[in-house]
Design brief:
Blueprint: E1 9-24, E2 29-45, E3 49-53, H1 60-67, E4 75-80, E5 83-84, H2 90-97, E6 100-103, H3 117-127, H4 133-146, H5 163-175, E7 181-185, H6 193-210, E8 213-217, H7 221-227, E9 230-235, E10 238-244, H8 245-250, H9 255-262, H10 269-274, H11 305-309, E11 315-316, E12 326-327
Parallel strand pairs: 3-8, 3-9, 6-7, 7-8
Antiparallel strand pairs: 1-2, 1-4, 4-5, 9-10, 10-12, 11-12
Length: about 325
C-alpha cells in the first residue's frame, strides 16, 4: 500500500491486528486466538468518507474500535494527524481523543437512559473542559439545531425520542468537541428504512459544513455507495479490495466483492432478471482457524492450488493514469 498518498492522509492504518485469546481449563491457559482483524492496511484522506463493508463477523467494527484505541490492538500502527497513536500512553492519548469520535450502532443502548439530552451532549465538553458553563450550554443548543432537533427538548430523556432522533442525539454528542475524524459503526442499521436516508443525508451535510472525515462501517451497500468516496471490502479479518466507489461497484475485481454486489437488488426489472447471482458455497471459516493461503479460497469458484497455498498480496491493478484499485487475489486479472 506504499503507493498511497500518505502526505494527505488524516488516518494511516498499517498491518493492524486484533486477536482475542481463547482460554481453557482451570488455569485459563491460552490455547488459541480469534483473529478478528489480521493485517489490515489503508489510508483515510482528509475530507473523504471511506466505506468499510463485509458480512457480519468479518472484523469491521473491531477495526473501527481499534483505530480509535477503544480496544487494544495486538500489533500494527495507527497514525492520526501525523502522530503515531498506536503506543501512546493513556495520559497522552486523552488529548487526542477530542479530535476523533464515534457514532455507535444502536441508539437505544448507546445513550444513558438516566441522563437528559442536555447532559448527554454536554458530557464530552465537561470531560475535556471545553468552555465555560454558559458556553457549554449554548453549544448544546447549537448542536441540537445542527442535527435537526428542537433545542427546547434538551431536558427530555432518550426514551421520549424516536430511534432516528436518538441517533441524532448520538451524532450531536460526537460533534461536541469539534472532531476532525468520526467512525460511524453501522450508524443506520438499527433504524427504520424510511429514517435511514434522513440520517445519511444529515451525515453528508455535516461533512461538508464541518470539513469532517468519516470511516463509515456498514453492510447496506446502497447506502455505502451513496455516502462514500472510496470503499474497502473486508473478509475474515482482511481487506480484500480497496478503490474508488464507482470502481468497486461497477468493476469489482475480487470474487468476494462480486458475490456481495450480486446480492444487491436492482430497481430495473429487466436488468434484475437478466443478471447472474453468485451464490457462495459453504460457510464462512472460523476466525480462530482461518484457511491457509487466500482466506476466501474454500468458497471461491475460481480457486486453484495456488490460492490454497499462497496468501495473495494487495496489488494495484488500475491503469497508470487512474486512481489505484487494490485487490488481494491471484486471479483478479480475469475481471479487469
Amino acid at each position: 500500500m506504499s503507493a498511497l498518498q500518505e502526505s494527505s492522509a488524516l488516518v494511516q492504518v498499517r498491518d493492524l491486528k486484533v486477536h482475542f485469546p481463547i482460554r481453557k481449563g482451570i488455569m485459563r491457559r491460552q490455547v488459541g486466538a480469534v483473529r478478528a482483524v489480521d493485517g489490515v492496511s489503508f489510508d483515510i484522506f482528509k475530507g473523504e468518507t471511506l466505506g468499510l463493508v463485509g458480512e457480519s463477523g468479518c472484523g469491521k467494527s473491531t477495526t473501527g474500535l481499534a483505530i480509535l484505541r477503544l480496544i487494544d490492538m495486538t500489533s500494527g500502527q495507527v497514525v492520526f494527524e501525523d502522530q503515531d497513536i498506536s503506543t501512546l500512553p493513556e495520559s497522552q492519548l486523552r488529548a487526542m481523543r477530542r479530535r476523533m469520535m464515534m457514532i455507535f450502532q444502536d441508539p437505544y443502548s448507546s445513550l444513558n437512559p438516566r441522563m437528559t439530552v442536555n447532559s448527554i451532549i454536554i458530557e464530552p465538553l465537561n470531560v475535556f473542559k471545553i468552555g465555560e458553563p454558559r458556553e457549554r450550554a449554548a453549544r448544546v443548543q447549537e448542536l441540537m439545531s445542527l442535527v435537526g432537533l428542537n433545542p427546547a427538548f434538551a431536558n427530555r430523556y432518550p426514551h421520549e425520542f424516536s430511534g432516528g432522533q436518538r441517533q441524532r442525539i448520538g451524532i450531536a454528542r460526537a460533534l461536541a468537541t469539534n472532531p476532525s475524524f468520526i467512525v460511524g459503526d453501522e450508524p443506520i442499521s438499527a433504524l427504520d428504512v424510511s429514517i435511514q436516508a434522513q440520517v445519511v443525508n444529515l451525515l453528508s451535510d455535516l461533512k461538508q459544513q464541518l470539513n469532517l472525515t468519516y470511516l463509515f462501517i456498514g453492510h447496506d451497500l446502497s447506502m455505502v455507495r451513496y455516502i462514500s468516496n472510496r470503499v474497502a471490502v473486508m473478509y475474515l479479518g482482511r481487506v480484500v479490495e480497496l478503490s474508488n466507489r464507482d470502481a468497486i461497484f461497477d468493476h469489482p475485481l475480487h470474487p468476494y466483492t462480486r458475490s456481495l454486489l450480486s446480492a444487491v437488488p436492482i430497481a430495473n426489472p429487466k436488468r434484475e432478471r437478466a443478471r447472474q447471482r453468485i451464490i457462495l458455497q459453504g460457510d464462512v471459516p472460523s476466525p480462530a482457524k482461518p484457511p491457509s493461503g487466500c482466506r476466501f479460497h474454500p468458497r471461491c469458484p475460481f480457486a486453484t492450488q495456488e490460492c490454497s497455498a499462497i496468501d495473495p498480496e494487495m496489488r494495484n491493478l488500475a491503469p497508470a493514469d487512474t486512481a489505484p484499485h487494490w485487490v488481494a487475489c491471484h486471479h483478479a486479472e480475469k475481471f479487469v
